[in-house]
Amino acid sequence: MSVVTVFNGLFSDAGTVIQRVLEQTGYRLVSDQEIVAEAAALSGMAEGKIARAFHAKTSVFNAFSHEKERGIAWLRLAMAKKLLDEERLLFSGFASHLPPADIDHILKVCLISEMKERLHVAERAEGFARKHALRLLHKDDEDRAVWVQTLKECDDPWSSRLYDLIVPISKVGVEKSAELVVEQLGNAAVMVTDSSRSKVEDFYLAARVQTVLAGEGHNIQVSARKGTVTLTINKHVIMLERLERELSDIVSHLDGVKKVEAGVGKAFHKTDIYRKADFAVPSKVLLVDDEREFAQTLSERLMMRDMGSAVVYDGESALDLVSEDEPEVMVLDLKMPGIDGIEVLRRVKREHPEIEVVILTGHGSEKDRDICMELGAFAYLHKPVDIDVLSETLRAANEKIRSAK
């Protein structure tokens, strides 16, 4: 049976349209939450980290952790498994853009309304104040635009080239909108064929390959056709042939892979360097120190050792970043204006005990050391610190985190 994917704007009455389609077809709804849960079960990643792939805002550590790209890889695999294993499905949400465009038996639908109508729905049906509704709409539209740009390289998430059917709900009405979707399901162009089934199998193979590469730290575009896997490198790399050989060695032995082809894509350029994620070193280190020059220099020296780091200059900023971006290791000074290091340590270990905290101070006493270790600090180091000593300490903290996972 054909499959339906629905992408829609917030507060557009899309939920009601989808419900009507489900009632008329007997299809099963597959939400983003279900795809995220499946991806988490397959990968071992936390659902919250995978779901962050839908957000426009990317982690400050992502250039080293590749967490968003890994999340997308596992989301693709979860979607591919659904398409292989089940029929009569309607996918609604961000996940609707995960499959490649060439699977003919997927009816790609966009449900949208004009902004003034969406505001009206938000105020009337949801009870939101106008300003709050506008903020929600703009944030949701931004997330959707960045998501579509990431997956489809298209600046307009509502572009007609992305869909088989675009329905302006506010003009057509809910009932007629549902009828249009059901009507198109009967179109011969979206019937299941041997060719379209083969393309789902290609999608599944490409998704499996991409998760394996992601697990090895690689962020590579992958496609497949009848067992031939194509790996596309879209960032500049100095030793291209060596990378291509490494990728081919990883992929060639996988079940279902008959041939591997590797090359560069249209985005390959010298200003954006290819960086493999190294899971043996911490990729999400937060440096907290009010000595700006010291903190910046330390960050640069850690990045030279392939450790991803971000810098903040006071305790309050550190707590804010921890709450929204989940660093894995924190290097923390004690003497800072405002909230001092001991209080930051206390709050972090109370609310995020999985974060390992390394104290790095030039003013601490033995009493401070005892307090910090009792509060759960991983290590207590003094300035000036040998960069190799700090690096080994961070590696040990990272190993503790990996072992716990």
Automatic annotation (TrEMBL):
<keyword id="KW-0902">Two-component regulatory system</keyword>
<dbReference type="Pfam" id="PF13189">
    <property type="entry name" value="Cytidylate_kin2"/>
</dbReference>
<dbReference type="InterPro" id="IPR027417">
    <property type="entry name" value="P-loop_NTPase"/>
</dbReference>
<dbReference type="InterPro" id="IPR001789">
    <property type="entry name" value="Sig_transdc_resp-reg_receiver"/>
</dbReference>
<keyword id="KW-0597">Phosphoprotein</keyword>
<feature type="modified residue" description="4-aspartylphosphate">
    <location>
        <position position="333"/>
    </location>
</feature>
<dbReference type="InterPro" id="IPR050595">
    <property type="entry name" value="Bact_response_regulator"/>
</dbReference>
<feature type="domain" description="Response regulatory">
    <location>
        <begin position="284"/>
        <end position="398"/>
    </location>
</feature>
<protein>
    <submittedName>
        <fullName>Response regulator receiver protein</fullName>
    </submittedName>
</protein>
<dbReference type="Pfam" id="PF00072">
    <property type="entry name" value="Response_reg"/>
</dbReference>
<dbReference type="GO" id="GO:0000160">
    <property type="term" value="P:phosphorelay signal transduction system"/>
</dbReference>
<dbReference type="InterPro" id="IPR011006">
    <property type="entry name" value="CheY-like_superfamily"/>
</dbReference>
